[in-house]
Structures are given as C-alpha cells and as structure tokens.
C-alpha cells in the first residue's frame, strides 16, 4: 500500500455499523492513510454481490453471511475473510400485542425458556383450532436473527420449519407488517423493535443477548484474496475500525456518537433512539424499560477479535437448520473465515473472546458437531 | 414460461415487459406492491423472477433459495459459478434474476441479457431526461440574466447576450456561470 488508498465500503444503515461510521467520520481511517467511501445499500444480497465482484473493497456484513459466501451457500462461492468484528449482539425478539396477550394467558414469559414453552402452547392450540400458523420475520436466512429465533422457539418444542412460518423481510417493513397483522413477531436489529414498541404495536420479549450471551453479529468482511494480498491495507482498516469502536465505547462520547449516527448519510433515525440503543436501555412495552449493558457490544476489549470457534458455531447452526450438509472440508473453510491472525498483526492480541453461551441446550466445543447437534430435540443431526 | 418483474418503477418495467413480449415471452406480470411479496409470487407461480437491485425486498426473495418445506418449487438465483462477467453485467445494470430449479440455462441467459440491455436503456433514457431538464433550466437562467441586463443597462436582447458571452470568454467560464453571477449580483443589489 503506497500513498492514500481508496476504499469503498458497503453498509446497511444500522447502529451496529457505528465503529465503521465513526472511523470514517472522525478521521481515524484518514489517519491510517485510507480514503474511505461509505456506500449505503438496501439489501444484504446487494452487499454480498458487490463485494463478490469487487465493486466494494470491504463491507459491513452479517457474520453468518460471511461464512455462507465462503461455503457457496445460496449463491456463488466467494471466499471472504473477516479480520475484525464490528459488533456483538444488538438484536431483539418482539411480538405483536395480540400474540403477547395469547402468550401471557398461557404462562410466564420473563425468561426465554418460559416464553418458548408458552409459544409452544399457543402454537399447539392454534393447530387444534385450525387457525393460520404464526408468522415471524427475520432479516436474512444467514443471520443471527434467524438463528436466535429458531434456537429460542425450538427450546420450547416448536419446530420453526413445520409449526410456523419464518420469512425474511427488510427491517423497515417489519413494524408495518406487525401492525397490519401479517407478522406475529420478529427478530431484528436496532432500532426496529424500539420503533414497534413506540408505535404501540409490539412488545419486546427478549434481547438477543438473553438468547445468546455473546453472538458475533456483524463483521467487516473482505474478499479473502484481498485480505491475503494486501496486508497493509487490511491492517490499516482494522486499526481504523478498532479506533472507531473504542471511540463509540467511551461513555463521554455518547451524545456526539448518537448525533453523528442519526445523520441521514448513516442510520438516519432520531438521535434519542440511537442513544437508547447504545446504552442498552430499551422500552419493552408501554410502561417498562429494560436495561442490559451487553445489549449491543461495540469496542469492548475481546469483542472485536474474530474467533474461529464462533465461525464453527455458526456452521453448526447452519447444519442444525439444514442450510447445508456436514463435511470436514466445509467445517475447516467455515472456521477460516474469522481471522484473529490479521487482527493480532494489526492491533496485537491477548484479547480472548468469551463464549457465545446460549440460554439453554448443549454447549459447543470446537469440532464437536455430531455431539452438539445430537443434544437438540429439533433440527438436523449428523 | 411465466416471468414476474418485481420493480417499483412503472416506466422501466414497461420497457422490460415490452422487450420480453417482443422476444416471445407473453406471460409477463409485474409486482409493484412489496407487502405480501411472497404470497403474490406463490399465486403467480413464475418460472423466472426479475428484480431491480434498488429493491429492499431482494432479501425476501433470497430466502426462497433455502429449501424450505413451505415453498413448493425451490428458487435459485441465476448465477453460473464460471460466469462472473454476467454477474458483473447484471449488478452494474441493476437487475438480478431468480429461476426455478430445472430450467434450461440457455433460455434464462437470453432473458437475462435482454433484461440487462433494457435496464441499461432505461438508465440512458433517465440520464437523457435529466440532461434535458437541466438544459431547460439553464436556458431559463440565461433568459433571466439577459432580462436583468437589458433592464439595467437598457440593452437589446442580442447586446445583453453578447455581453455575457464576452465575459464568459474573457474569464474562461461557461455562459451559464456568468448568468448565475448576474442573477446573484442583481439579487444583492435589490
């Protein structure tokens, strides 16, 4: 890399791209010799395609999508490398006020294990009454939203493929569909569940971190060939995003970061909503507010470093939900997507990622696919 | 063969529809209402789905790749692992094609090629229109500046124009820039 490098980065307007926005806006990227052009996109499929054919040099991407692209699931095989995590967690499961009433009529819903059982009762009753199956929305088949929803409901005994419908919808459409009764619930990133609560059409049941304690949500992804051929460029990008994330994480910068992100060129929603998301203080219904400091994790030491175990865990979710079949070669490829080596070379190591830790079910050890999948009542086994 | 166009632009889909009809594809339907997209697609049960890349519902379609028990006929994106040129061409033109499994590749290729050329034609049309609009706006600005000069300096129309053209040549600027300066200056002197 010589002189100023021009870098085109695609993104979806979401709060979890904050590190990228701040790295560019506050000049951390320029300080690394990068001339970054951020390009707003309307679909994950577009981001994937433009990254694949080189219209983008890097992208804000769903962590499972980076694995899917590398394995050639749902699209041509384009090996990607993720040298830094942009965010952990940040999603929430919300249901319509009508479904919330049905759920609370049959049981407790405070803990995910309880609400999943309540959901199973509601689903069973609807089957007896020959009512339409419930419909839940998520953003993409290869997304943490999809895996969070499925994991949660399957723990209660609901088969997400047989007992209800799961559909992919653009996040801005979720709230309207919930209001029209075309959706009964959804799992989506911030700020959309808050928008549903504020509009009085939805109730937040659980934060994503109640389902998986620390789930890799979005990564910065590059084509593997770029990551390996231009180490200076990759290191500069990692350092810029790392500094951006640290800036976001600093409590004294909260107001400024919220204001910057609210701009139409970034997320384009009210700064107050962004502030609530960044502090993890969300209104969950008309009266109550819930607060968790791990609702959305950006910039915390250990959260940024990609962990190959997490890629293996993502591959395990893909296997469980029949998105692919098992092969040792595929498992290896999946594992190779998250690249701590590139991260360590740029900003130094010693930050170990903590476990994903689901609210229930078997724990996952590296490589133990057969055993892990056998631990679930619902889903594909090896 | 049934083809569905998912596009919110009525003109572009009309252009595309026409092209497809000329090529012998008569069963072409357009979806412009994005709510209940999947239901509409199931109802039409198409063999090919074309969608513009500016449409956020593309991710909804992508989900149909997944072999789900809810879908009668699996849908796949039309991509050929070996054919990056056609992926590039379609991304750059702003369109993407999805097909049901089992269709002959050659037939789809011709549809996609047609689609790409029509999308490009539409972009050109839009650019031409934009240019025509800005040309018109420029002409109006020059007329206005001319009027200001005629009134302020009691010039004829031709003299006013010559004055601006002379200034443009001297300062190595476009006449529209001079016209804008005249208008700005006149507003400041008001």
What this model shows, in words?
The complex is a heterodimer of chains A (382) and B (190). With 382 residues, chain A is α/β, with parallel strands linked by helices. Chain A folds into 2 domains: 5-89 and 216-279 and 296-374, D-Maltodextrin-Binding Protein, domain 2, CATH 3.40.190; 91-211, Periplasmic binding protein-like II (D-Maltodextrin-Binding Protein, domain 2, 3-Layer(aba) Sandwich). Chain A contains 18 helices and 13 strands. Chain A has helices at 18-25, 28-31, 44-52, 63-71, 97-106, 112-128, 144-155, 171-179, 192-198, 208-211, 224-229, 231-249, 254-262, 271-279, 308-320, 328-335, 340-347, 369-374, and strands at 5-11, 34-40, 58-62, 80-89, 91-96, 135-138, 165-168, 185-189, 202-207, 216-223, 281-283, 289-291, 296-297. Chain A has a 6-stranded mixed β-sheet with strand order 2-1-3-10-4-13, with helices on both faces. The longest helix of chain A has 19 residues, at 231-249. Chain A is globular. Chain B is α/β, with parallel strands linked by helices and 190 residues long. Chain B folds into 2 domains: 2-128, D-Maltodextrin-Binding Protein, domain 2 (3-Layer(aba) Sandwich), CATH 3.40.190; 132-189, Winged helix-like DNA-binding domain superfamily/Winged helix DNA-binding domain (Arc Repressor Mutant, subunit A, Orthogonal Bundle), CATH 1.10.10. Chain B has a 5-stranded mixed β-sheet, with helices on both faces. In chain B, helix 1 (10-22) links the parallel strand 1 (2-6) and strand 2 (27-31). In chain B, helix 4 runs parallel beside helix 5 and helix 5 (105-153) packs across helix 6. The longest helix of chain B has 49 residues, at 105-153. The N and C termini of chain B lie far apart (67 Å). The mean pLDDT of chain B is 83. The chains are: A alpha/beta (382), B alpha/beta (190). Chain A binds chain B through residues 42-46, 49-50, 52-53, 55, 72, 74-77, 139-141, 161-162, 165, 167-170, 172-173, 176-177, 180, 182, 322-323, and chain B through 34-36, 38, 53-63, 65-70, 77, 79, 81, 84, 87-88, 91-92, 96.
């Amino acid at each position: 890399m010589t002189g100023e490098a021009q870098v085109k980065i695609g993104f979806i307007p979401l709060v979890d791209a904050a590190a990228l926005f701040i790295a560019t806006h506050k000049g951390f990227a320029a300080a690394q010799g990068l001339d970054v052009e951020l390009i707003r996109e309307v679909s994950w499929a577009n981001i994937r395609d433009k990254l694949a054919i080189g219209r983008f040099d890097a992208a804000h991407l769903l962590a499972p999508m980076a694995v899917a692209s590398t394995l050639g699931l749902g699209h041509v095989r384009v090996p990607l490398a993720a040298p830094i995590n942009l965010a952990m967690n940040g999603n929430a499961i919300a249901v319509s006020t009508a479904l919330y009433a049905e759920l609370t009529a049959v049981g407790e819903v405070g803990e995910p294990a309880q609400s999943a059982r309540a959901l199973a009762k509601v689903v069973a009753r609807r089957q007896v009454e020959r009512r339409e199956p419930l419909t839940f929305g998520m953003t993409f088949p290869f997304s943490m939203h999809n895996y969070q929803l499925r994991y949660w409901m399957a723990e209660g005994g609901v088969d997400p493929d047989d007992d209800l419908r799961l559909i992919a919808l653009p996040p801005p459409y979720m709230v309207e569909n919930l209001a029209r009764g075309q959706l009964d619930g959804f799992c989506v990133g911030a700020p959309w569940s808050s928008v549903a609560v504020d509009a009085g059409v939805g109730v937040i049941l659980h934060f994503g971190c109640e389902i998986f304690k620390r789930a890799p949500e979005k990564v910065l992804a590059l084509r593997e060939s770029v990551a390996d051929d231009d180490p200076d460029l990759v290191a500069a990008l990692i350092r810029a995003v790392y500094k951006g994330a640290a800036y976001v994480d600093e409590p004294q910068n909260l107001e400024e970061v919220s204001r910057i992100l609210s701009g139409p060129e970034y997320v384009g929603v009210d700064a107050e909503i962004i502030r609530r998301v960044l502090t993890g203080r969300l209104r969950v219904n008309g009266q109550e507010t819930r607060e968790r400091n791990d609702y959305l994790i950006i910039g915390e030491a250990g959260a940024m470093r990609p962990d190959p175990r997490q890629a293996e865990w993502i591959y395990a979710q893909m296997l469980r939900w029949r998105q692919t079949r098992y092969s040792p070669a595929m498992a290896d490829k999946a594992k190779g997507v998250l690249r701590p080596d590139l991260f360590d070379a740029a900003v130094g190591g010693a930050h170990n990622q903590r476990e994903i830790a689901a609210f229930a079910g078997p724990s996952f050890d590296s490589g133990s696919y057969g055993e892990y999948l056998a631990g679930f009542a619902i889903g594909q086994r090896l | 063969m049934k083809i569905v166009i998912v596009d919110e632009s009525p003109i572009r889909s009309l252009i595309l529809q026409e092209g497809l009809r000329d090529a012998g594809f008569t069963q072409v339907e357009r979806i412009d209402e994005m709510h209940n997209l999947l239901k509409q697609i199931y109802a039409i049960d198409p063999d090919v789905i074309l969608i513009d890349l500016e449409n956020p519902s593309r991710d909804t379609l992508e989900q149909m790749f997944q072999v789900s028990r809810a879908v009668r006929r699996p849908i796949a994106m039309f991509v050929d692992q070996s054919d990056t040129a056609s992926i590039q061409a379609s991304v750059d033109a702003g369109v993407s094609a999805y097909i049901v499994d089992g269709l002959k590749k050659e037939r789809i290729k011709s549809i996609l090629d047609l689609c790409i050329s029509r999308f490009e034609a539409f972009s050109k049309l839009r650019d031409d229109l934009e240019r025509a609009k800005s040309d018109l706006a420029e002409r109006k600005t020059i007329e206005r500046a001319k009027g200001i000069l005629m009134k302020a300096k009691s010039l004829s129309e031709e003299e006013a124009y010559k004055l601006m053209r002379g200034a443009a040549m001297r300062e190595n600027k476009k006449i529209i820039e001079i016209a804008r300066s005249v208008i700005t200056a006149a507003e400041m002197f008001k």
